[in-house]
Amino acid sequence: MAAPKKGRGPSGGHGRPGRALALILIAMVALTGGMFLSGHTTPRLGIDLAGGTSITLEAQNQPGKPNAINQTNMNTAVGIIERRVNGLGVSEAEVQTQGDKNIIVNIPKGTNSKQAQEQVGTTAQLYFRPVLAVQASGPEQPTPSGSATPSGSATPKTDESAGGGDKPESGDKPEGEEATPSASATTQGRAVTGALTKDDPTPGASDKPKPSDSPEASPPADPATAKLQEEFAKLDCSDPKQRSEAGQDAKPTDSIVACGSNVPGSYEKYVLGPAEVSGSDVDDAKGAIEQQTGEWIVSMEFTSGGAKKFQKITSRLSQQQPPMNQFAIVLDGEVVSAPSVRTALSKNAQISGSFDQQSAEDLGNILSYGALPLTFEEVSVTTVTAALGDEQLKGGLIAGAIGLALVIIYLLVYYRGLAFIALLSLLVSGVLTYTIMSLLGPAIGFALNLPAVCGAIVAIGITADSFIVYFERVRDEIREGRTLRPAIERAWPRARRTILVSDFVSFLAAAVLFVVTVGKVQGFAFTLGLTTLLDVVVVFLFTKPVMTLMGRTKFFSRGGPWSGLDPKRLGAQPPLRRSRRATAPTEPKEA
């Protein structure tokens, strides 16, 4: 008679629980090792736990652009603001839209957070404008005699010919000597230089300005120019209100007046020509140290289209006298820098002079990421101190500890010895959750906020519920009269199905909540979804294998009172045994 074929063991490797336990142990060691090697041994904390600043920006309607506030422009603005803030090294910043016209910027307390907050408030367009006139501005700044504007320029020019320079008057120095600006003139102490490429014009005699080649700066009769002169004369840049309103609502094609500050406490006012290069034409800019001089500079690289525009404006400005050989970098209507041009440039350029590390990096960051498609206004700024964040974190941890303690007490009272298996499973789940959260911080920018802590607390109940489902299925099998080891294996398929359905519903709810919500609620949804997935992993690779091993020990297999599997306490039925059908005794037949 042929020997019967050996059947397969229980599915999922439950006949060999050591394999499943070894797999989850390797995963725990790998995650813990990765956490220590990466140097991120604690999860990143959000603003409500670590402290920081939350800024709400509201998009403003722009003149002549009624449909400018749309989802595309809002998403573009979010990306630019995020790159601008993260470019300062504030890697924990969070930028996202809220509603149709609001952007929320969360800057955790830490390195460069204050600097990032200042740049976040600077949210409008960036333009490069030629300087037509510049003068020191203050409540008691005298106007030079015989000149309404500095550098011998009688009036600012508002058309393209304004870049042509000034014609020397009778009192000017002879040709070959440099014209001296008036006492109120300034060139911001900065210059733009760069290496010429084969496409650049070769510098020569024409690079040096000649007064005889410049058209006369005569006052035009244009009413718009007269109005600009009047605004320039009345502008007091030491007044914060006038400083913020200068050039407000002007179009890129308009000439404007603007304010700037090169030295803290002192201000300059400018007359600027139409914008010739916009921030979108800058491909990259960064602060760096010039190798030859050891000074901080800002290096710029333009796009192909921006390079042509920049070459055109620098070629013209390099042949002018101060201050008309300057171009102003204007952000939100304020002049952040007004360097002079020494030679014609195209794709690459350097801004040098009077920079320290912070000012060079700030200007480079603004040039790289400052071109926003919309204008924004700060609606609210909320600051959470580190002390308040510590209190909220402490409160969340206390709430989690209370919830965990209640679960442990319930398991000990009701399940007794089985509570040991449940506690080991909770410990494994906690280790996996902690290490994964610590690694997700630098990997995807996950930050643990207060709602996320709430999600982790809820996950304690979800994980414990899975253990309870399995324990009750095992108890049901024992009540039917089976011994422990067969009960463990027979209960698993039924418990497994229930656990998977329950966790699927929890994960689906977390996924929907993550998609349809914004802000901190997403932290709750993300943590809930993560811990639900880990619950499945722990139950399949740890709880079931450990239960199988424990079923082989005398403590559990004998069903003692403290094992939690006592047949008498569970009201077990007598074992099911097969019995032959009883037959009536037959009487002997009569002869």
Radius of gyration: 38 Å
One letter per element, helices H and strands E, the order comes to HHEHEEHEEHHEEEEEHEEEEHEHHHHHHH
Q: What's the arrangement of strands in the largest beta sheet? A: 4-7-6-12-11
Count of DSSP-assigned helices? 15
Mind summarizing the main beta sheet?
Answer: 5 strands, mixed, barrel
Estimated structural class: alpha+beta
Task: Please summarize what this structure is.
The chain is α+β, with helices and mostly antiparallel strands and 591 residues long.
Description:
The chain is 43% helix and 15% strand. By secondary structure, the chain is an alpha+beta fold. The strands form three sheets. Strands 4-7-6-12-11 form a five-stranded mixed barrel. A hairpin with a 3-residue loop joins strand 2 (94-98) and strand 3 (102-108). Helix 9 (386-415) runs parallel beside helix 11 and helix 12 packs antiparallel against helix 13 (521-550). The two termini are 46 Å apart.
Show the helix and strand layout:
Blueprint: H1 17-38, H2 47-50, E1 52-60, H3 71-86, E2 94-98, E3 102-108, H4 113-120, E4 126-137, E5 191-193, H5 223-234, H6 240-245, E6 256-260, E7 267-272, E8 277-278, E9 282-289, E10 296-302, H7 304-317, E11 327-331, E12 334-337, E13 340-341, E14 348-352, H8 357-369, E15 375-384, H9 386-415, H10 418-444, H11 450-479, H12 484-516, H13 521-550, H14 554-557, H15 567-570
Parallel strand pairs: 5-13, 6-12
Antiparallel strand pairs: 1-3, 1-15, 2-3, 4-7, 4-8, 4-11, 5-14, 6-7, 9-10, 10-14, 11-12
Helix pairs in contact: 1-10, 1-13, 3-4, 3-8, 9-10, 9-11, 10-11, 10-13, 11-12, 11-13, 12-13
